[in-house]
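Let us begin with a simple case.
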Amino acid sequence: MTDAALSASTPRPRVSAKLFFADPRFARILLLLLVAGLVLGPVIVLVRASLAPAGMLPFETSTITLDNFRQIFASPDTLQLLWTTLLYAAASVVLGVGLAIAIAWMTERTDMPGVAFIRVFMFSWMAIPPFVIGFGWILLINPGNGALNVLLRNLFGLDRPPLTIYSFWSLVIITAFSVIPTAYVMFGGLFRNLDPQLENAGRVLGGDGFTVARKITLPLLTPGIVSVGIFMTMIVIQAFELPFIVGLSAQIRVLSTRVYLLAAPITGLPNYGLSSAFGVFLLLLAGLLMLLYFRMVGAGDRFRVVTGRGFRPKRIRLGAWRLPVAGLMFFLFVIMALPVAMLVWTSLFPSYRLPSLSALGDMSFANYARALGTPFVRQAVVNTILLVVASATGVMLLASLIAWFSVRDGGKTGRLLDMLSFAPTAIPPSIMVISILLVYMRTPLYGTIWILIVASVTVHLAFATRTMTSALIQLHKELADAALVCGASWWTTLQKIILPLVRPQLLNGWLFVAAHTSRDLTVALVLMTSSNVVLSTAIWMMWDFPDLAGAAAMAMLLVAGLLVLVLPVQIMAARDARRQD
């Protein structure tokens, strides 16, 4: 029974200012217009800007020209830019996904010790902002006075620094480390749900470990591995922060940084037309990868091995290899944590100092007090809190409404809402934010914290909607039908019955959006003005000043706040997983 039918069988509420909450048909239409404005508006403006003459904003002229696209395809640098972007993404994903597969297999299929710690570490590490990781690696391996370079030169008597941050492969390795946690989370369930009876049957028939892995395990996992690889490739191609922080100094240009520098050049006037044309090109590339991703996910139906019959995943005994394997894992995590440790060290001294025992006596928290005592930083903290609370609350409320109508209605409007809300997944954040900049440039929102809130809601709408849709699908419609038959409006039903039942998913989604909003630099940097600075852009400005010690202190405060949000939830999740094991 649909909301419209149930509403017809109950007394119709009088027309009032509360029409949205009383009439589901009016609410659906209004919600559809809102989502279309948030998602389609920026895309339409982006395409229009790409067709505008040089030096003109999309709304300043009615002239349509392909000059921006001609310039892109006529430039010899375009092919090199595309090649560098694809090579960077492919190399980072191959390395990061390969390590994630190894870690996921060890934690889910073997008796390696420390599994709970690894799970908590991986989930928590996703809360660390990529730009913070980039700053830490610069302090570690810059050729001049990087801590690791100085250590290695002193240990081995080298004349030249053995490591450098300013190289293509350094960027690849650093990006691969950022890929590992997300890929690990995606592979964890894949390995956990693989029925070991298939592998056992292969061993019973005489196959050795390598043969079973090659002919049974790998073919079963191939769709999942390829789909995760495509998804992570799409994420890396869209990535902005590490290529911006590390790549620009090394003269490594990728599509995302090229789009940003055209829209916000270091010197000169912005070229929104050419930036939008590159944005359309990057949007098409991301859309192609998304189609491949869905194709692989659909192909996975032929490889389903978890059915209604129960099974217990069997863990492989490592025997004498348990401690060596755990040691290798610990070594990898130490390497991943080194940038954060270096920033902690830097934050405790008035200026940058190399780690040494003699410096321990000069450590203090003066940088933290100095930073928090600055009106500029205090305002950034207030702006960040407002941005996080408003964005997370707004996007989860909007996602709950979309999920309610798409699951309950099942008609054209519901499907259209679902499709529109998922569309931002195919739009790179840097492109979406530049599009939002063009849309709201001549409005009162521009330059305020509210344009950051609108951008954050738009960027995170797809994830929030997927989260709430998955939760609502699990609820039988009779729960809502009973309330509607008793005279409750759709809004009362959603508020009093449905949302309390999906409170855990609602909270997890809120925490995810809050953490990613507070750690994001892309949205805040593109839309930054003097009145809407948040913590991420304040840290960037202090680093660029340069005030390395102050930037490190602020970065650690941001990381501490994120871990307070994420860590307790992950510890409880790890305990639950341990009980199930």
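The second case is a distinct protein. As before, the sequence precedes its structure tokens.
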Amino acid sequence: MTMRSCSKGRRASGKRLNSLAGLGHHEDGTLKRALTCVFALVVLVALVPATFSATPLEKAGSPPIVPSQSSSEPHALSNISDNPAYLGNFTLTAAFEAKMQGPDGGIIEMEDDPTKFENTDNTLEAVWVWSRYYTLTRDDRYTANISAAWNYSWAHPAWLETDSGRVYSCSWAIKAELEFRRAYGNHSNLPYAKRCAAYINARNGWETNIILNNWGKNDIRGLAAGNMYDWAVEQGNETARLGAIALGNATKAAIEANSTWLAVEDWALAGGVAYWGVVHSTLREYPNATWAEQYAAFLKTNVTAPGGGPGNSQCGWYAWYALGHYAAWEATGNASHLNQSLGMVAWLILQDGDRDGGIPTNFGDPDNTDESWVTSYRALDIGEIIPAWHGQPPDPPTLTVADSVNGLYLNVFWNLSLQDSIVGDVVRYDIYRGTAYDATGAGYSLWGAVSAGADGFPVLISFGDISSYFFYVVAVDSEWLTSGMSNQAGRIVEYSAGITGNALLGNPFIVWNDRVSEVIDWVLFDYIRAFDPSRPDSPWISYVPGRSYQSLAHLPLGMGFWLNTTAFFGVPMVGLVPKSVTIDLKAGWNLIASCSMINRTVGDVLAGVPWVAAEIFDASQPGYYLRRASSTDILFRGQGFWVQVASDSTLAFHN
């Protein structure tokens, strides 16, 4: 990143600056673009320690080198080089940075003018990109590029950088050295990083050799805090760790004093990097989700105006805000911040119109005017995001609705796995079915599958099928890792031997609509009656088909009821299986449902409840069709029953 006084007349290109930076844009805006990006991550091979040869490029003065893969193993990324996915885009970015490398190993800023402006910060950013690429893929094609870049960086030290800022350049050096050492197991550049850490600490992270507004300097201090903390913890360097926390505290205090700084841009920087730095330093040491949530609200979600001066970059600012929102998710666990970040990254990916891995300074700039430093900022976003999902199974989907259509179809719907709805890393959903309920899904078998993006499936129920079924769904990602199971949906059939006359039932499910006509979907009946002890003067309520007024309109979870019907194949009931159900009981008699999916004894169900008596359905008993239950009688799922309690109490079911 340069600060030279020369700049290109036809556009504000690069990061050159020769006077006091103008006040950063301070605008509000929301992301108004509909982002529809299909992402796919490939299987990443395990990380294996490797050696690194720190040798210069073989041919001085030759064009930028893009080494071919030296390993004889299959290329891990060969099938996604044209896919606008995170890892696919990162692959293209690594190649773009190689294209921008000059004969001396330095990285050139401007794609359309390869004769100018190599800088140490640009070069160290590329070292980080190539090292992270190797970490993710074990593809060593950029070994020579990294070697040349380190040679350049030693010849032009970050702590002596004259154009882009020394604290800024040293911050990138620390991040690059850490990633390089982790990737290759090579410690030869550790002294370089130590020198940079000492430089940052000696100046309290405050950039003094370039002209910036205070908020721009606060952004650099945040970048230094976050990068140095990660490096110091990995090194066990207590001096650097304490220094990083001090920088983070200072950045945090500045944000608290003027939170609007989080929505201000200056030079190549934006408030998102200051926020990220606090999260990756102070809040790593002292987690504070409340603070993170409070101040995340000040981060922009869009940058509507293009950069108009040297170093000003709409795409670059956008990338820093995306990183800030990602840090907000890291600190709070609030998925809305992750969603925001990934949506912004998706938009940045789309700025690579010619699919060469680079992006320009501003939205809509010509495709042949990409800049290496802006591209590195976007790569930082993507490089941070990929490890969050790599090697980890996707989050499970969550079933939201299970209902029946005329008794012939069971429809089940779910919220997509987070990795499907946001990251795009789910390839399908597997549906498992069992006929005997088990909370862990034991004994269920694979019933079918639907593709990623699908949020439901229909199950055809054969006419006269009196079987009970239970379903759960799992997400499968591009690494063939499987999520945990979703919650469960069920379909049970009460009185499967058939009913003629009265039956005592209950609703054991979470239903999307608990109106009588939805819970009792396709069975013809004369009436339904329920008992509401909260109405002591008229506790009986009823539903009669065709009657204009219904005192009973709903059959909620846990309610017991009498049904008078002729149903030769029983009464099917459909819904989501509740994890737990708590029913309030009034002193005296209560008509409720058995909500356990496993049949249990009366004594087991009513344990801990001050029950006096219980009555269950018995078709052989004329009149009320009831008999007094003993503690050993079985309560079936979905069965209605009466219980008399001595005092107000609660009854809990668990599935």
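Residues 1-84 have pLDDT under 50 and may be disordered. The chain has three domains: 86-389, 398-487, 493-654.
Keep these points in mind for the review questions at the end of the chapter.
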